[in-house]
Amino acid sequence: MADTSSESYSQPQKNLFAHQFQNATAAASSSSESKRDESATTTKTPSGVVLDKDGKPCRTCTSAAAWKNLTKQAKAIPSSTPASTRQPPKECPPDVEELGRSTWTLLHSMSATYPEKANTEQQSEMRGFLKLLSKLYPCWVCADDFRTWMAEPSGKNEPKLGGRKEFGNWMCEAHNEVNRKLGKKEFDCRLWEERWRTGWKDGRCD
Ligand SMILES: Cc1cc2nc3c(=O)[nH]c(=O)nc-3n(C[C@H](O)[C@H](O)[C@H](O)COP(=O)(O)OP(=O)(O)OC[C@H]3O[C@@H](n4cnc5c(N)ncnc54)[C@H](O)[C@@H]3O)c2cc1C
After folding, report:
1. Per-residue pLDDT tens digits for 74-129
2. CB proximity list for 176: less than 8 A, separation 6 or greater
3. What is the rounded distance in angstroms from the CA atom of residue 95 to the CA atom of residue 22?
4. What is the DSSP-derived secondary structure letter of residue 83?
5. Rounded to the nearest 5 degrees, what angle is found at the Cα of 99, between the Cα atoms of 20 and 122?
């Protein structure tokens, strides 16, 4: 069995910021690493593996590729195998990307089924859910940044919960914030309902 104990990889150094690892294999990124770095041995190794708060590798914070390097499974694949046929094994614990895709599906679907006009109780329940999600999300670096973004001092990023349209837009903006952080293309938020509620106007989802 692969050894993923904290002794088997390099320990984090002080002041390792996300931008210093732009070439590391697609690891979870975090704009607030500098803040966390002051308090604990919690950061990313040069190999792209993100560490948990106890200093052990955090699988749900790390890309599948970086994880595979860590566990040395990559070496078991014959070099004659074309890269295009090297599929990740099915039904394994999620990496940071699979976890992210599944969670966005849940979150956008929740906004798609949110009441057109939400009453006080519905708003309060959703606020509580988002607050808890931003604490309990299994990729802790993602959770930290999401929480920090929502709590921006001016209040401009607070969840907009009056009804489906504004909540759906807010969720789209929240997702775009992560897209920007990861250097991905922004999604056109005018289209969120076609993507997540009604299906595209060209009928491909009907
Ligand atoms: C709260 C949260 C925080 C995260 N933080 C990090 C992080 O710090 N570091 C990290 O590496 N990963 C993070 N992730 C995961 C990351 O956002 C992606 O899910 C992951 O990189 C896989 O990306 P993807 O390109 O497959 O598509 P995803 O970004 O997962 O998107 C899935 C689908 O949603 C649609 N979509 C894309 N953008 C939008 C939008 N703005 N509005 C509506 N629909 C949209 C597209 O159809 C897309 O195919 C986070 C995920 C969540 C839920």
Report:
1. 555 565 656 555 566 789 999 999 999 999 999 999 999 999 999 999 999 999 99
2. 186, 187, 189
3. 18
4. G
5. 115
Hey, which of 12-26, 68-82, 146-160 has the most confident mean pLDDT? 146-160
Pocket around ligand 1 at a 6 A CB cut-off:
28-30, 96-97, 100-101, 103-104, 108, 137, 141-142, 145-146, 172, 175-176, 178-179, 182, 184, 187, 192, 195
Which distant-in-sequence residues (6+ apart) come within 8 Å of 165 by Cβ?
116
Query: Which residue type occupies 119?
Result: N
Contacts of 126 (CB under 8 A, 6+ apart): 110, 114, 118, 159, 161, 167
| CA 87–ligand 1 middle distance (angstroms) | 21
Of residues 55 and 162, more confidently modeled: 162
CATH code at 95-197 = 1.20.120.310
Instruction: Give one DSSP letter per residue of 27-75, joined into a string.
Output: ----TTHHHHHTTSS-SB-TTSPBB-TTSSB-GGGS-HHHHHHHHTGGG
